[in-house]
């Protein structure tokens, strides 16, 4: 009873306002107030004040209901509410984080902001159920392909919940970036030219203006073996290399083959024992269907193996390459001592395999598709005032939009992958399925993954060094927040919403694959901390590591050919420059590939940097302090990364991708 004083904030984006009416009812533990109209003029960025009088004794406020009513003659548009603060007649202040759009004629239940895990038989749980039922209607699962994570049931971005769609600013800059870059190559006639390249240097002329310092440097040093090796640690895909203590049986590299490459140490077995030998094995590509036609030409792919040696100067150098998994006369082991063209082409085949595995398994599956599952399960299983919802929600922004776009334009039938990639058409789904069979929980957790691959001590591994610092900062932040809400292991075990969330991710994301080691439930506080760190890291830093350098490393196409249009060499001494030009992608295939990696590396506007949380979901002081501590730690990491980059391994080749200042909070591109 009495007068409640309301402060209502409309979103700051230009499209956040509306001329539609917004009404409200307040929900307390003892009752609900009648619906009251607040206003029909909502200006972006404006904070408005209202009084709501009620004769009903509401008791302690727990939620409110917002209603948006459309007008017959007004242009219907959505309203974005940021927050509502309410002062009760007794002077108590309640905070309601909204941070959602309401579009059309609709209503929205908003919980009071205090984060809470479910307490059974509480009135709050009724409202949690009401909110979740609505979310489950909006966020439905769909089978994407057999053996692949489920995805959102939306054929087009317009089918997505309004809250998941790009803002006007983001959509606009996304299209402008693509349009400007596309115009140049259209005018040059490159996009329609189905010829082979006439010489390698012409490849550098695709774009006049779209270039980076790193892409220019790569075009200069791409032939160097030490750069080829460097990319396994600090390129687009630092995920495949592992220490080799024993040669695989199907890769019969002998002492005599590599003696000349091992400098003063001519003993391969001694170098294996010393931990200086590493292996990149693309076995996963064996048996994958290959794109049968690009520009009407059959395409080829191999499942190569590459042996690398860490030399006394701490440089990683390839010392043997086999272009297939079955040794024999038809699959010679190529060596640095072979002819220049033989060795160059062998390395190109490895880089071609790298392109397929990087884009399909480590970029698409391990970041985009898993992040999508985290998003859908979060909306379906966690009410918005659940602390885990509040931790993860900033890291799920725009993922459904970019993935829906990707399914339609990139990886779907007739999409860009079909036009440029060796695994296009039937190959992608098969490779994703094989990738899923190999997913492990340790592989998704950076510190465990580095140890499992034997890479704890290899020098100049900046993905590991920067990634570990970020992982630790995240883990510390998550741990503080989790311990604020979960006072015991039992409270983790007995939180039905949390357990349903983990179980749904296990079922829909990891297809209940027990051997993966992915948890299907969480038993204690430390398991929850690790799990949440994995989720946040994957959506932010891991995606940045495999996404942001795409143009830098692939702009010089011979360093990452997306497909090959001649079969791999079956003997030595026959490769010429012409063989290489006849094998590399055609002019238009190269150009389309470059256009895409330019677009995907060049983040559009409307970005949120790692740890910057503009939306205040946590309304209590303690978690807000933990967020500030997290930001301070990330600032220290950023300083260290910038200092380290003053002395890069190769001049003009700093490792840029895991500086927290440039990492996006979520998978949004
Ligand atoms: Fe991406």
Q: What report would you give on this structure?
A:
The protein has helices at residues 123-138, 168-187, 213-221, 225-234, 255-258, 268-273, 340-381, 387-392, 399-410, 416-420, 426-438, 441-444, 446-452, 462-485, 489-493, 496-509, 525-547, 550-554, 577-583, 587-601, 621-644; strands at residues 2-10, 21-28, 36-39, 47-54, 61-69, 79-87, 93-102, 106-111, 141-142, 151-152, 242-243, 277-281, 305-310, 316-322, 333-334. The longest helix has 42 residues, at 340-381. By secondary structure, it is of the alpha+beta class. The chain has a 5-stranded antiparallel β-sheet with strand order 11-12-13-14-15. Strands 4-1-6-7 form a 4-stranded antiparallel β-sheet, with no helix packed on it. It has a 4-stranded antiparallel β-sheet with strand order 3-2-5-8, covered by helices on one side. Strand 13 (305-310) and strand 14 (316-322) form a beta hairpin. The chain has a domain at 2-112: Lipoxygenase-1, CATH 2.60.60. The chain is elongated and about 95 Å long. It has 21 helices and 15 strands.
């Amino acid at each position: 009873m009495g007068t409640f004083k309301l402060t209502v904030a409309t979103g700051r984006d230009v499209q956040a306002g509306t001329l539609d009416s917004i009404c409200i009812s307040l929900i307390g533990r003892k009752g609900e107030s009648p619906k009251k109209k607040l206003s029909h003029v909502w200006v972006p960025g404006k904070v408005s004040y209202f009084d709501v009088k009620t004769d009903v004794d509401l008791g302690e406020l727990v939620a409110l209901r917002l209603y948006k009513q459309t007008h017959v003659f007004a242009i219907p548009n959505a309203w974005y509410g940021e927050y509502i603060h309410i002062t009760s007649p007794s002077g108590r202040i309640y905070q309601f984080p909204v941070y959602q759009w309401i579009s059309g004629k609709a209503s929205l239940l908003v919980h009071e902001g205090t984060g809470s895990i479910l307490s059974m038989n509480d009135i709050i749980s009724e409202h949690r159920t009401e909110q979740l039922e609505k979310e489950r209607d909006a966020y439905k699962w769909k089978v994407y392909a057999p053996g692949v994570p489920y995805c959102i049931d939306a054929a087009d971005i317009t089918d997505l919940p309004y809250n998941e769609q790009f803002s006007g600013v983001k959509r606009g800059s996304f299209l402008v970036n693509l349009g400007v870059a596309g115009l140049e190559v259209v005018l040059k006639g490159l996009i329609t030219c189905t010829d082979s390249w006439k010489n390698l240097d012409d490849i550098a002329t695709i774009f006049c203006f779209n270039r980076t310092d790193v892409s220019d440097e790569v075009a200069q040093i791409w032939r160097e073996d030490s750069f080829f090796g460097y990319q396994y640690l600090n390129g687009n895909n630092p995920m495949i290399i592992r220490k080799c203590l024993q040669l695989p049986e199907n890769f019969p590299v002998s002492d005599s083959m590599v003696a000349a490459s091992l400098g003063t140490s001519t003993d391969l077995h001694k170098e294996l024992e010393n931990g200086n030998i590493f292996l990149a094995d693309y076995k996963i590509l064996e048996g994958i269907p290959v794109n049968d036609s690009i520009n009407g030409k059959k395409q080829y792919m191999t499942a190569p193996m590459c042996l690398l040696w860490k030399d006394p100067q701490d440089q990683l150098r390839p010392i043997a390459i086999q272009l297939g998994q079955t040794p024999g006369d038809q699959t010679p082991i190529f060596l640095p001592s072979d002819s220049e063209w033989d060795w160059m082409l062998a390395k190109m085949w490895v880089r071609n395999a790298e392109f397929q595995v990087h884009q399909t398994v480590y970029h698409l599956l391990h970041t985009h598709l898993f992040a999508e599952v985290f998003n859908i399960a979060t909306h379906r299983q966690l009410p918005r005032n659940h602390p885990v919802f509040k931790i993860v929600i900033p890291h799920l922004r725009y993922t459904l939009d970019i993935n829906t776009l990707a399914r339609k334009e990139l990886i779907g039938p007739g999409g860009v992958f079909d036009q440029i990639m060796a695994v296009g058409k039937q190959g992608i789904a098969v490779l994703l399925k094989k990738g899923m069979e190999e997913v492990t929980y340790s592989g998704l957790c950076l510190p465990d993954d580095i140890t499992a691959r034997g890479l704890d001590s290899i020098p100049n591994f900046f993905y590991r060094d920067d990634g570990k610092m970020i992982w630790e900062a995240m883990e510390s932040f998550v741990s503080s927040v989790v311990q604020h809400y979960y006072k015991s292991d039992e409270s983790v075990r007995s939180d039905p919403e949390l357990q349903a969330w983990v179980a749904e991710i296990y079922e829909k994301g990891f297809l209940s694959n027990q051997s993966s080691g992915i948890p299907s439930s969480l038993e204690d506080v430390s398991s929850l901390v690790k799990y949440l760190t994995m989720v946040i890291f994957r959506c932010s830093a891991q995606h940045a590591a495999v996404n942001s350098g795409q143009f830098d490393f692939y702009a010089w196409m011979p360093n990452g050919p997306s497909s090959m249009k001649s079969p791999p060499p079956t003997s030595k001494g026959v490769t010429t420059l012409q063989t290489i030009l006849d094998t590399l992608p055609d002019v238009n295939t190269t150009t389309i590939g470059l256009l895409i990696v330019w677009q995907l590396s060049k983040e559009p506007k409307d970005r949120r940097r790692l740890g910057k949380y503009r939306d205040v979901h946590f309304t209590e002081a303690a978690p807000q302090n933990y967020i500030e501590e997290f930001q301070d730690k990330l600032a220290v990491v950023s300083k260290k990364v910038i200092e380290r980059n003053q002395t890069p391994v190769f001049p003009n080749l700093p490792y840029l991708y895991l500086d927290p200042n440039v990492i996006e909070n979520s998978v949004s591109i």
